[in-house]
């Protein structure tokens, strides 16, 4: 159950967030090798955020997954998500960090239990 949590200081008002969520879902599912039905994307806008002392458009993300992550996959996901943020929200690729967490099944709760 991969979960990509994205926060940005860019306002999402007037933005087609469905397109961002859909593209991010497809990207994560394809690159990690998990069904889209298990991928969760969280997108938060207008988050007070400074990067390098500047409040220009920036973003931070965390991707948690049970397996499927490795240095090669992480690099591809980072590039793909940076492209989505750049094209859809005008966040420069150089103003985006993404942290990866490969978690154990017992550390994921779902359906009132753990995996």
Automatic annotation (TrEMBL):
GO MF, one example: phenylpyruvate tautomerase activity
This entry carries the following GO cellular component terms, namely: extracellular space
Instruction: Give the matching InterPro entries.
Output: Macrophage_inhib_fac, Tautomerase/MIF_sf
Record-stated family: Belongs to the MIF family.
PANTHER family in alphabetical order: D-DOPACHROME DECARBOXYLASE, TAUTOMERASE_MIF SUPERFAMILY PROTEIN
Stated name of the protein: Macrophage migration inhibitory factor homolog
Q: Which organism is it from?
A: Lactuca sativa
